[in-house]
Amino acid sequence: MMLFVFSILCAFVQVTCLNPRSHWTLLPHILVLNVDGTLGQYPLSCLEEDPLKRDNHTQEIFWRRNGVEEAQRGNTHMVQLVESFGGGNYTCHREDGTLLNHTEVLIMQDESKRRRILVKTEQEYLKCSTQNYNGEFHCSWTWHSSRVSKIAFIKAQRGSGDNNTQCSVDASDQHWMCTSAHRNFSCSVDGSRSGVSCRDKQHCPFAEEKQPIHMTVYVRTDHFLLESYSKLFLLSEIVKPDKVRIGKVNTTVVEWSYPSSWSTPYSYFPLTFQIFQVRGRCRKCENPCAGSKPPKALTIHSTDICQFKVKHKVKAVCVRAKDALCDSEWSEWSHVRLRRNGKSKKYKQHKKYA
């Protein structure tokens, strides 16, 4: 009975019903309603009406939600909001079935509610990284395994308070452009739909970053539930160099150089290298450095090609790098083997006299 009374009050005293709390346009013909979980209504209009020239034909307009005809008629349709439900594809038609207008309604719950579409990986929803300071970066996420979801909108900008950034997508739904008065971002969605690569076209590698990048990914379910996930960062906070290029000069000397993707000149963007020499048996290991926590790693600062003389009985040398000027991530290990994975000398002599 109380539920019925509340519904009546929301229908006739809409000023007191703050559900939806707000509404905004995501893309043309896509409306977002921010709800708080209580009962509410929102009016959808089919045609723009001139109050001085009312057309009686608007009373003949009928509505469909997800292809199913609704009982309501007329130019205005009241979307019924119950918890996270009420979203859908709403279309309005003339009496003969001619399509007049269409609106997709997405429901966005309060951010304090439990997230349903993405899952956390390493305590965060969005994992962002860059290989250099050229203005390019990549963000990835993990979809919830039990939900059918997709990307609804992508927004990249400098600073979190720039409300003048406008974003658009091409016909393939893969390439996004976000522009403002001073910035221009281009983003491309990965083929797996689990990540996006972006570039700040106005970024200058030699200038100090005064404003962080604000990356927001909107994702939605087939049930018209919308969620947003954001991350604020400077490139210096997410930089992770590619693997170091390493090779063997001779049986006792190795040589490595900066990753080809790293920013130049190296004197302005120096790297710190960490070297680890492997002595133990690892004949069948594809990567002798994997999972290593080097107890006696050597750190070297260099802005040029490095040569290093290895110790006796060393089987492999592992090298990784990080930005020398900030507390960033290490690159993945690179390695070079100094001995083949053949049989031992003792085994060969035993085989000879067998």
Topology of this protein?
Blueprint: H1 2-12, E1 22-27, E2 30-35, E3 40-45, E4 62-65, E5 68-73, E6 76-81, E7 88-93, E8 99-109, E9 118-119, E10 127-129, E11 136-140, E12 142-143, E13 149-158, E14 166-169, E15 175-179, E16 184-189, E17 195-200, E18 213-221, E19 225-233, H2 235-238, E20 245-248, E21 253-257, E22 271-278, E23 298-302, E24 306-309, E25 316-323, E26 334-337, H3 345-352
Parallel strand pairs: 2-8, 8-19
Antiparallel strand pairs: 1-2, 3-6, 4-5, 4-7, 7-8, 9-12, 10-11, 11-17, 13-18, 14-15, 15-16, 16-17, 18-19, 20-21, 21-24, 22-23, 22-25, 25-26
Q: Give the low-confidence spans.
A: 1-17, 340-354
Helix content: under 10%
Give the rounded overall mean pLDDT: 85
Provide the succession of SSEs. HEEEEEEEEEEEEEEEEEEEHEEEEEEEH
Structural class: mainly beta
Using the alpha-carbon principal axes, give the shape: elongated
End-to-end Cα distance, whole Å, is 95 Å
Number of helix segments? 3
User: How many beta-strand runs?
Assistant: 26
Beta fraction:
35-45%
Radius of gyration: 30 Å
How does the major sheet shape up? Answer: 9 strands, mixed
